[in-house]
Amino acid sequence: MRKKVSIIGAGNIGASTAQFIASEGIADVVLYDIIEGVPQGKALDIAEACPLWNSSVSVKGTNSFEETAGSDVLVVAAGFPRKPGMSRDDLLQANAEVVMHVVTHASQRSPKSIIIVVTNPMDVMAQLAWRVSGFDLKRVVGMGGILDSTRFRTFISIELGISCSDIEALVLGGHGDFMVPMPRFTTVKGIPLTEILPDQTIHGIIHRTRHGGAEIVHLLKTGSAYYAPAAATFQMIKAILFDEKRILPCAAYLSGQYGVHDVFVGVPVQLGASGIDKVIELELNEEERRDFKKSVEAVKVLLQKIQIA
Q1: Which residues pair with 168 in a beta bridge?
Q2: β-pairing verdict for 246-255 and 261-272
Q3: What is the C-alpha separation between 105 and 109, in angstroms, rounded?
Q4: pLDDT at 193 over 90
Q5: Could you list the active site residues?
Q6: C-alpha distances in angstroms, 150 versus 210, 267, 291?
Q7: What domains are there in the chain, each with its CATH number?
């Protein structure tokens, strides 16, 4: 029997994620949204492309949570996108209400699933999804670190004029303006970035990475990024469905790792069929620890605002 992935929220990220899954033929897809006709229309469009991809998976759109029952993976992409001038944090209260509603209904119908949270502010929404679902900690994970790291890779690739395939990058911390790109753990064909580029150039790349989402929002004017977020989400889905045990930067609940307790925040994890197999703890220097703590504190402030700290 094929695996089943339900995507809650048929906006640009949700629909693009569904397209990636269907084009690769790795799972049946259910696309849920509250707006009548939208998930059905997008799902039908994707389904009609499946013969061109030689994909035999099922793609369905629905306005009913019943259709999501028995999912192996639930992707929470429902909520409001950013507009120009907004930060991810500005979406806090509105998206908290959305996430509470959809996670309550979807998790009840797929009690053995793994939840991937995409909705912003992502780290806080991941913690909220865990609280609402009552799932084991390892079965709730947030997408953010992969996206931030791939942006870091992209900007390094542009600066050096080399293939991004030869770049391994790492970004820790919350998925926001206080994220922590890690030059010391970022390499170009095994060579640390700090040995290739001067500090001033690296700082410029870090700044652009931190504001990479806002840059796209400013350019689009009527929406936010979706191709890269969907591709990052797909990488996580694939790692789970095929038990790849990938080491990926994701938002995970920390219970003492990195000196942090009771907060979802971005760190390297081993991701497989059971969700987060383990958190990978790196030895940080004084500056890295300081920046990471600052990022964690920014997440905690938002948690307190919706009273789940």
Answers
A1: 187
A2: antiparallel
A3: 7
A4: yes
A5: 175
A6: 12, 14, 20
A7: 4-142 (3.40.50.720), 145-305 (3.90.110.10)
Give me the pLDDT at residue 240, please.
Answer: 98
pLDDT tens, position by position, 98-155: 999 999 999 999 999 999 999 999 999 999 999 999 999 999 999 989 999 999 999 9
pTM of the complete model: 0.95
Dump strand ranges (E) for 28-155: 28-32, 59-62, 73-76, 114-117, 140-142
Nearest by Cα to 171 from 181, 162, 185:
181
SS3 106: helix
Q: What are phi and psi of 200, to 5 degrees?
A: -60, -40
CA dihedral 77, 225, 254, 243 (to 10 degrees): 70
Q: Kindly tell me the sign of the dihedral angle through the C-alpha atoms of 288, 289, 295, 298.
A: negative
Element (H, E) at 207: helix 199-210
183: pLDDT strictly greater than 70: yes
Cα atoms in the Cβ-side hemisphere of radius 13 Å centred on 169: 25
CA 128 – CA 306 distance, rounded (Å): 9
Cα 309 to the center of its chain, rounded Å: 21
Who's near 141: CB < 8 A, 6+ residues apart? 114, 115, 116, 117, 126, 236, 250, 251, 252, 269, 271, 275, 276
227: Cβ contacts below 8 Å, ≥ 6 apart: 16
Location of structure tokens 């689009």: 220
| pLDDT for 307 | 77
- Nearest Cα residue to 102 out of 68, 53, 136: 68
Cα–Cα distances (Å) from 91 to 74, 82, 94, 125, 302, in that order, read: 21, 7, 6, 10, 11
- Assign 64 a pLDDT band (cuts: 50, 70, 90): very high
What end-to-end distance do the CA atoms of the chain give, in Å?
40
Position 290, amino acid: R
Q: Which residues pair with 32 in a beta bridge?
A: 8, 62
